[in-house]
């Protein structure tokens, strides 16, 4: 069977009909049909409008998404979206840096309608580079708490990742732990492991500390962390957890889904989650989220996709596959994730993570955090 893309057919129909209708229009100049010209003209205009609308809506039946989330994390919810709306999704996955560079290079010619990426720092950077467009959606405003979306409506958090403490249950009593700030106390000397400062996760965490305490106090905190390190900063969250489990250090800071992945593999590891800052501002949270691209051609369908992803139907699909938390407060997390306990989250707007990221990077460098 030969398949022809529907937009090609529609474009052809518009062209053929435009041509024959123009002939008809010319005819009306010379013939007895002249008296009907106003009617025929009106008819032609109406027909062309219909074709144009049909062509546009047929083209809008496909959305292009650039995603820094890997295929296995996004495919199930795209399939659910297509099933519900009939709108197909073509997606490209890559790391966030590559996708932002691609969007920037393509400029007005980009085929992408939606950008999906992790970390508010990355979403903020995309908005700052003018790659996203502000959108108005009462559904998104209702489904997503204000601190998890851009105040200018250019990006929206769709799942929450909590950056919390994980400790070795054989070496630490939970009552010894209290806050991110307290990990700078000399009592943690040679007991702390941290992921490298090169990853956006700790940059966002430090940016949020700056937003709360100012630069001078945050620098003292970060210097305290560095003084307490048991090892050089580690390449990723999983490695940090493995070091804690092996007793090479006692406590670390990670996103909870890395803890979840490791514990699913080996439930007997001597690791447990601690929720810090509960009597203060709450746990540092971040998001995976999305925005509508500045130059995408299918804005309405793109908004529809974001709204769908924030809805009850898709929130668990978006969050559960990566053991994250739904942003929509009406939805419960996956049972395994819920088993880690409830916590109070920081309500500071995540745009601060972006605004203060460059400041955070310089501060970490000054503090000797590599
Ligand atoms: Fe991650």
Account of the 3D structure:
The protein has 15 helices and nine strands. Helix 7 (200-213) packs across helix 8 (215-228) and helix 8 (215-228) packs across helix 15 (357-366). With 370 residues, it is of the alpha/beta class. Helix content is 47%, strand content 14%. The model is unreliable at 1-38 and 42-60 (pLDDT under 50). Strands 1, 2, 3, 4, 5, 6, 7, 8 and 9 form a nine-stranded mixed sheet that branches. It folds into three domains: 6-59; 62-158 and 287-331, Periplasmic binding protein-like II (D-Maltodextrin-Binding Protein, domain 2); 161-284 and 354-366, Periplasmic binding protein-like II (D-Maltodextrin-Binding Protein, domain 2, 3-Layer(aba) Sandwich), CATH 3.40.190. Helix 3 links the parallel strand 1 (62-67) and strand 2. Bound molecules: fe (ii) ion (FE2).
CATH topology of the largest domain: D-Maltodextrin-Binding Protein, domain 2
CATH class of the largest domain: Alpha Beta
Number of strands: 9
What would you call the shape? globular
Distinct ligands? fe (ii) ion
Let me know the CATH homologous superfamily of the largest domain.
Answer: Periplasmic binding protein-like II
How would a crystallographer describe the biggest sheet?
A: 9 strands, mixed
Total helix count? 15
How many domain modules?
Answer: 3
Low-confidence stretches: 1-38, 42-60
CATH architectural name of the largest domain: 3-Layer(aba) Sandwich
Which value, in Å, is the CA radius of gyration? Answer: 26 Å
Class from secondary-structure proportions: alpha/beta
Mean pLDDT reading: 88
**Beta fraction:** 5-15%
């Amino acid at each position: 069977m030969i398949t022809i893309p529907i937009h090609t057919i529609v474009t052809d129909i518009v062209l053929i009909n435009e041509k024959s209708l123009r002939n008809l229009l010319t005819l009306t100049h010379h013939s007895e049909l002249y008296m009907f010209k106003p009617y025929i003209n009106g008819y032609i205009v109406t027909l062309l409008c219909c074709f144009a609308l049909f062509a546009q809506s047929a083209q809008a039946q496909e959305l292009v998404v650039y995603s820094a989330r890997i295929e296995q994390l996004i495919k199930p919810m795209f399939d659910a979206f297509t099933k519900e709306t009939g709108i197909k999704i073509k997606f490209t996955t890559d790391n966030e840096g590559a996708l932002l560079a691609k969007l920037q290079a393509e400029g007005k010619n980009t085929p992408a309608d939606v950008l999906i990426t992790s970390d508010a720092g990355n979403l903020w950077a995309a908005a700052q580079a003018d790659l996203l467009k502000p959108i108005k959606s009462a559904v998104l405003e209702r489904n997503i708490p204000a601190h998890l979306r851009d105040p200018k409506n250019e990006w929206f958090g769709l799942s929450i990742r909590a950056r919390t403490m994980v400790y070795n249950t054989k070496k630490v009593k939970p009552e010894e732990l209290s806050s991110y700030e307290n990990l700078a106390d000399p009592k943690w000397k040679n007991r702390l492991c941290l992921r490298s400062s090169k990853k956006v996760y700790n940059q966002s965490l430090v940016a949020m500390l700056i937003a709360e305490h100012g630069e001078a106090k945050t620098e003292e905190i970060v210097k305290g962390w560095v003084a307490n390190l048991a090892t050089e900063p580690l390449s990723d969250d999983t490695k940090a957890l493995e070091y804690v489990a092996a007793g090479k250090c006692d406590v670390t800071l990670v996103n909870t889904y890395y803890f979840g992945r490791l514990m699913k593999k080996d439930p007997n590891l001597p690791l447990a989650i601690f929720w810090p800052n509960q009597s203060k501002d709450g746990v540092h949270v971040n998001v995976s989220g999305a925005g509508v691209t500045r130059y995408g051609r299918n804005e309405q369908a793109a908004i529809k996709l974001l709204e769908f992803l924030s809805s009850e139907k898709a929130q668990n699909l978006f969050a559960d596959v990566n053991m994250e938390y739904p942003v929509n407060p009406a939805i419960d997390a996956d049972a395994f994730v819920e088993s880690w306990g409830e916590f109070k989250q920081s309500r500071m707007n995540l745009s601060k993570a972006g605004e203060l990221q460059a400041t955070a990077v310089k501060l970490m460098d000054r503090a000797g955090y590599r």
